[in-house]
Amino acid sequence: MQLDDARALDRNDPFADTARLFDLPQGVIYLDGNSLGPPPRPALDALTKAAQAEWGHDLIASWNSADWMGLPLRTGARIARLIGVDETSVIAGDSVSVNLFKLAAGLVMGGAKGVAVERGDFPTDGYVMEGLARLSGTPFTLIEPGAGVAGLPDGHDVLVRSAVHYKTAAKVDIAAEEREAARLGRTIIWDLSHAAGLVGLQLERDGAKYAVGCGYKYLNGGPGAPAFVYCHRDVVESFAQPLSGWMGHATPFAFKDGYKPATGVSRFAAGTPAILSMSALHGALSAFEGLDMAQVEAKARALGDTFLAAIAPLGLETISPPSAQRAGHVSLVHEDGYAVVQAMIAEGVIGDFREPDVMRFGFAPLYLTHAQVFNAGQIMVEIIQSGRFSEPRFGKRNAVT
Ligand SMILES: Cc1ncc(COP(=O)(O)O)c(C=O)c1O
Ligand SMILES: Nc1c(O)cccc1C(=O)C[C@H](N)C(=O)O
């Protein structure tokens, strides 16, 4: 592949208009939208409006006049379309970690026994289940990577599983896993952090009942953006959400003693929502309006292929699966991976590094072109072939990578 081939692919890009919503800094090729998405203009506009006109001017009246009360559900409805579920079954709020706790602890309180996570999945999922096990006395087990629901040991009803693996980008066949879960009488909570806003998810069609996901990655909601939780309408009315705070109460402003959950997914709210962050997320989601998520996913994979073609001369090992089973990023192994990524950042190509030796590059389709990605690949080739990464300034680890 040559640069002209990449440019030819860009001529058929269905997302050329969407790219205009993003003002990335000049000279930067941003390959880290899988960790922190950049701000689309509607996110910044919504944030400014919420801060100045709503908070600054209308003050507390904005809970009603700007419908701050309804914002978590309105934001959830926008996310619902992207993950293929009923628009009333998603609510935005809290973090992935907290929402995972709500779902898993609610299942355990409802009688489920034993929770499991695959070894090597994103650590917070295991940490939270470990805490739940300590609290509730239910067993917690780390199972083999890729084992899926069939790998749940006896006495374990619940598996928490990433739909897309944070390190490898391997994509799970959700429908097949849910069929297996139904056959075995077990339950899966999906972590959609690296899938939402990227993969053409159809959770309801595929039989998924419970999921959580991140607002700050491909959804571009901003640092610390609220996460979301999905609970299928068939199970939500009997679901006992354990963080039973007043915002999930049926009548929060009646200030009554005694908890009575709100109907539907509103019961997953706990405390007061982070309105400024959620306004940014709500605005950011408008960038997805009218987009076909299957096309978004297809472009992400094609961009990954362009990158791999550009760096082919390096012959690096990849831990990511081939295109058909891969989602939005590509991970490559290099013993000096940290220094290589730092040297690339110094030349405007922003990716990230995951211990011990993985260089990770994300290909968010809404603002990246094949030509940019091909250039990024060529810069990587030059940096490695010239040895430029071995300057001492590139070897010093940051706290956040
Ligand atoms: C798969 C996965 N799950 C969970 C998280 C953490 O989410 P949070 O910080 O919202 O708890 C991340 C990233 O930080 C992630 O990649
Ligand atoms: N949430 C993050 C943060 O606060 C700082 C740096 C990175 C993150 C991330 O989201 C990491 C990400 N989940 C990952 O896949 O590595």
From TrEMBL:
Keywords: Hydrolase, Pyridine nucleotide biosynthesis, Pyridoxal phosphate. Pathway: Amino-acid degradation; L-kynurenine degradation; L-alanine and anthranilate from L-kynurenine: step 1/1; Cofactor biosynthesis; NAD(+) biosynthesis; quinolinate from L-kynurenine: step 2/3. InterPro entries: Kynureninase (IPR010111), PyrdxlP-dep_Trfase (IPR015424), PyrdxlP-dep_Trfase_major (IPR015421), PyrdxlP-dep_Trfase_small (IPR015422). GO terms for molecular function: kynureninase activity; pyridoxal phosphate binding. One of its GO terms (biological process) is L-kynurenine catabolic process. It catalyses: 3-hydroxy-L-kynurenine + H2O = 3-hydroxyanthranilate + L-alanine + H(+); L-kynurenine + H2O = anthranilate + L-alanine + H(+). Its EC number is 3.7.1.3. It holds the Pfam family KYNU_C. The keyword Hydrolase applies. Homodimer. Belongs to the kynureninase family. This is Kynureninase. It comes from Glycocaulis alkaliphilus.
